[in-house]
Amino acid sequence: MADGKELTEGMTDSNVPDRYSRQTRFAPLGQEGQRKLLASRVLICGLGALGTVIANGLARAGVGFLRVIDRDFLELNNLQRQVLYDEGDIASGLPKAEAAARKLRQINSEITIESAVTDLEAANIATLAEDVDLIVDGTDNFETRYLINDFAVKRGSPWVYGGAVGSEGHVMVIRPAVTACLRCLIPTPPAPGTGPTCESAGILGPASAIVANFQVAEAIKLLSGNEKALAEGLLVLDLWSNRIRRINTASLREQSDCPCCVHRRFDWLETESGSHTTSLCGRNAVQICPKEKVAIPWDEMAARWRELGKVDVNRFLLRLKVDDVQVTLFPDGRAIIKGTDDIGQARSLYARYVGS
Amino acid sequence: MKIHLLLFAGAAEVAGTSDVTMEVGQAATIGELRGKIVDEFPDLGPIVGRSMFALNETYVSDDAAISDGDEVACIPPVSGG
């Protein structure tokens, strides 16, 4: 038997690169599981504390195609837990999606990494998610999670929910028609500002990392054809009080009168798209998305802003610092206004500096 | 009868404890327990209203009956990431 193992070492199946040998030797995965991973396509939504760990894990594991998206840019306080970034990325003023994609390509140049600096919304979710096998949640808000849930249930494809705050986290694999969905579990979305966020309650790096790694493990099981090994129900963990509970949600699915997965009403997917403004909870910042995507005249805008205040510019974002306000503008007209959580004031700053 | 109440996330933060033994009447339900928790920790009102409840590690609705010695977990949604 030992001889047999020696023989196969270093001469793995030509379809399966040797770089994955340590995980293909894990019997439940094997070469067959690895081949399935290499042929899989995954969308990772959000590249913060969860998303960076998820992307890191799936890229190293050899998932063949990763699309990574995030709407935000990098800040120094991200480095405490967002493992794909370093100080150099912050100095370069890169959006998270671009910095993450560069790092992921260095980690694994043999897979395809696609990135987009964008907010996931009803208008673009089909384009970003219809060609993937699985969506993994690295978002930081319930609005986007309900949108992902709507899309996944409608399409009948799985997604992995994860959330983390403080020292705690939740993980649940959602498989339409097999498990309960997010809306079965939490029928009414928590109103923005009612729950603790990473900004208000803080977040420990190990808490978000462990949640994200649970998500990675479930993703690997799902994509490699090991559905039987999938975790059932909702995992609830608290690293500080040393509690882990796996909540059985089977009855929830049986008794559910869920508007989404039973009555097939997709409220977040069918919302009227268009201009929207979102207060980025606890960050003293507001995001503004114009009704129509526009192409900002980059150099012209940069020149105009230089007369008003301090300007940073690269290919991905344009930033103006004036008084106590920071306006970060993306090429499609989306902006994040920092220095206020008042939506009205943010809109008027957008009108003043970007145009209405 | 006595139950063992576990508070998670924002609920534990607001109540200042994550682990409480509570005295409840016979034939109490999860719905009644929600009220009792708020009586004991008035600040928990909004959080308890939007929390999930698990009885001995199984998700339950408000009409589920509680027995002596049960572990009840109050689990607010976790949105960060």
Automatic annotation (TrEMBL), chain A:
Family: Belongs to the HesA/MoeB/ThiF family.
InterPro entries documented for this protein: ThiF/MoeB/HesA, ThiF_NAD_FAD-bd, Ubiquitin-activating_enz
MF (Gene Ontology): nucleotidyltransferase activity; sulfotransferase activity; thiosulfate-cyanide sulfurtransferase activity; ubiquitin-like modifier activating enzyme activity
Keyword annotations of the record: Nucleotidyltransferase, Transferase
Organism: Kolteria novifilia
Example of a GO cellular component annotation carried by this entry: cytosol
Protein name, per record: Sulfur carrier protein ThiS adenylyltransferase
EC number from the UniProt entry: 2.7.7.73
Top-level taxonomic group: Bacteria
Ranges for domain THIF-type NAD/FAD binding fold: 20-259
TrEMBL record, chain B:
Protein species of origin: Kolteria novifilia
InterPro entries, sorted: Beta-grasp_dom_sf (IPR012675), MOCS2A (IPR044672), Mopterin_synth/thiamin_S_b (IPR016155), ThiS/MoaD-like (IPR003749)
GO biological process terms on file: Mo-molybdopterin cofactor biosynthetic process
Protein origin, superkingdom: Bacteria
Transmembrane segments: none
Protein name: Molybdopterin synthase sulfur carrier subunit
This protein's UniProt keywords: Molybdenum cofactor biosynthesis, Nucleotide-binding
Pathway terms, separated by semicolons: Cofactor biosynthesis; molybdopterin biosynthesis
UniProt GO MF annotations: nucleotide binding
Protein family: Belongs to the MoaD family.
Alphabetized Pfam families for the sequence: ThiS (PF02597)
GO cellular component terms attached to this protein's record: molybdopterin adenylyltransferase complex
